[in-house]
Amino acid sequence: MKNNKINNRIIIVILTVIILTIINVYFKNSRLPSAINVYTSINNDPETILNYSKYKHSVGGYKEAIEGYEAVINNPSSSKSLKLKAQAYLILSQHGQALEPIEPIKYLEDSKAKSNEFKRTGYVFLDRVDYITTGDYFNASKETCYHESEFTHLDENGLPMVKYSDYNGGDGSFHYNPVTIAQFSLTAFGRYKNGTGTKKQFIDSIDKLLSLQSPSGAMRLDFSFKHYINNDIYKPGWVSSLAQGQAISAFVRAYQVTGDNKYLDAADKAYMFMCIPVNEGGTKDTSEDLDGTDNVFFQEYITTPKSYTLNGFIFTIIGIYDLSQTKDSIYKGDAHKMFVNCNDTLLKVIHKYDLGCMTAYDAAYITKKDQYPNMNIQYHASHIELVDAMYSITNNPIYKYYNLMWKSYVV
């Protein structure tokens, strides 16, 4: 019996040596260029150099990877998309970061089709987002969507009301949506800051937002709505972390402008309600159904199965960040800890939203059997901006990687 164990160990050692030898021979004899030939090969095939550099990156050869990425970036024959990809990988290698994990490319062809649709549509996104709590919120001052239309009505004060049709589970009437009012207020703030709007316009919109907040701090949505994941109808009074987070961003800016504690109190209450667990009526959840952990995740939509909407989560995180930067808030310290926790969650799960040539709106395709990924070109543009905002706040290269990579899909 003892001799059999020894023989088994010898066999394992021999097989290991054989496998390693094959791998070594493959990379020596493959068409991938050696490090010495990186610059001489670049004029012939920059994509080959990119692949070679990714290989060196994957095995910890950061110096050679950097040289290859830079060669691709500087080569005039490289396409804009290829250069953006090289820039994305470069920022990781410069910081000694491993390549980001890649989900199975089951939906690659579908995401390519959506990418081409994006290019045909001509959607634009901010080239750079330097996010600060006192600044113009995602360049909102340039927003031009607030006008009369089939689904939008401006009230006597110019504030938008939104109609949700039967298709969306609505009643066909116009309603004030706290998300829309918060976004309108952030637009008014940006215009006030850059001189194209007035303080009164901003405060009028904020006071309307304040009137939509319940005593508990909830920014309840008072209309029916149907979520595509299960077609259940949300009854009026449902809650969303997006409404809470963007209301916080608007309220703290009103406090900056006026110094009036009622706006700071509103921001604090919105945060307090948002942090109530989903099973108790709030919006705070975990990422368990997404990655098997109990990391914090705030839900834009409370669904069964869980949907894990990407843009809603990041906008919520940014609202939490805004509160953490507001020195007079009683939740300043708690909001900072919550921001750190949410940032950690996002960094762990963000790769699950990358479908190879387009981003997923949410993670329902993971949590619900046979669910097709929801790919939306408008939200892909938003995702590009949101991760850049997170990069400007945290300086974490992973966010810049995704900003550049997701740009490369649609240029």
From TrEMBL:
GO molecular function: heparosan-N-sulfate-glucuronate 5-epimerase activity
Organism of origin: Clostridium kluyveri (strain ATCC 8527 / DSM 555 / NBRC 12016 / NCIMB 10680 / K1)
Segments crossing the lipid bilayer: 6-27
Superkingdom of origin organism: Bacteria
Ranges for domain D-glucuronyl C5-epimerase C-terminal: 215-408
Biological process per Gene Ontology, one example term: heparan sulfate proteoglycan biosynthetic process
Lineage start: Bacteria, Bacillati, Bacillota, Clostridia, Eubacteriales
Pfam families assigned to the protein according to its UniProt record, in alphabetical order: C5-epim_C
InterPro entries linked: 6-hairpin_glycosidase_sf, C5-epim_C, C5-epimerase, TPR-like_helical_dom_sf
Keywords noted in UniProt: Membrane, Transmembrane, Transmembrane helix
Record-given protein name: D-glucuronyl C5-epimerase C-terminal domain-containing protein
